[in-house]
Amino acid sequence: MTTATLPTPRPPSWTVKLSDTGAWRTALASGRPVLAHLNADTTWLIQLPYPASATAPEGRSHFNVLVDPWLQGPQSDVASWFSTQWHVQAPSVQTIKELNDILGQLEHEGNISKVDASYVDAVAISHEFTDHCHRATLRELPRDTPVFATDKAAKLIRSWSHFDRVITTPGFSQTHEDWTSAIGDKTGSLAPWLGIGRIVTEGNALYYHSAVIIVFDLGTAAGSGRRDAEAIIYSPHGIKPADLAWIKTPGKRINTLALLHGLDDVRIWMTSQLNLGALNGIEAVRACGARYWIATHDEVKKGAGVISWLLRRKSYGLQDAVKAEEAKLDASGDSPAHYDFVGLGSGDGLVLQAAAAASSLVA
């Protein structure tokens, strides 16, 4: 009989309160990626250290990717009478300028006089819906910020005539031999050790339940003796496990560092499932072999409009998902997945340790 056990709390040395800039700076000095949750919903900052083999721009130690930024104000889809939502908990930063000032001070050890450039190096947008593609927040960014967006979102953003470069996120699937040829940047907007793509279901590239994948090669993986890229997979609505299983095949040479996938099951009454929730998430993290499962897109927002009356939310905890997984493992005889589950609130950050260095919290 196979038994899965609940994870123990994350060691404090790996988490950071973003309000403590000293602790944040220490996290960045670890030489590992830092993941920062900027609101209680699904706005993230991914901070990737420049590899030793790469030449970083002067005064820079990290490449900063902003994901699905929505800070202040409401978001509406179709029309305000149809669907409007507001954050219940205030974001940890109120404006892009505030975020940029903090990032500059982190790079220059608090010397505000040196914060005169943009420290958001790229933006990744997962969907065209305005809780992911928020016009007011995005327009706070400089025009020369490269934006990587899925097809419909890219068309929407281009219609604003604000950004100089809006790149349609390339698809990445099991048919591609390697990540560099599939999602390596061809526009000069990203470093050669970094790629931003979209995991697609064959024959349905615009499927609602898909994922953004950010792949990066920081050097030789600890203890591996060979170079393997690492990946962060971001799926705010969830993605079917079968669409992720190919990623951990040896030929792809990608180690999935983190899967961002929500816990809550969200549906529109008597119609479609929007967010797949924890029962899907625990299978998805097994499928891709992620080192971390990090909850996202679970903020219970204030809503108005027709859709707010029809939404049905079932909140799951990790314990619910583990119990469901136990039953499946008992029936199949498979071994449980090994991963760390982390819930980050607004203003929390996490140092993403390499797989070889982190302990297994689900065994």
Structure description:
- The protein contains eight helices and 21 strands.
- With 363 residues, it is α/β, with parallel strands linked by helices.
- The chain has one domain (13-351): 4-Layer Sandwich (Metallo-beta-lactamase, Chain A), CATH 3.60.15.
* CA radius of gyration: 20 Å
What would the principal axes of the Cα set say about the shape? globular
Number of domains: 1
Strand content: 15-25%
Which second-level CATH architecture applies?
Answer: 4-Layer Sandwich
Q: Class, according to the CATH hierarchy?
A: Alpha Beta
Order of helices and strands: EHEEEEEHEHEHEEHEEEEEEHEEHEHEE
Which stretches are low in confidence, meaning pLDDT under 50 for 5 or more residues running? 1-12, 221-226, 357-363
Could you estimate the helical fraction of the residues in percent? 10-25%
Strand order across the largest sheet = 1-21-2-3-4-7-8-9
CATH superfamily: Ribonuclease Z/Hydroxyacylglutathione hydrolase-like
Mean pLDDT: 84
CATH topological fold name: Metallo-beta-lactamase, Chain A
Number of strands: 21
Main structural class:
alpha/beta
* Major sheet attributes: 8 strands, mixed
| Total of helices | 8
* Amino- and carboxy-terminal Cα gap: 13 Å
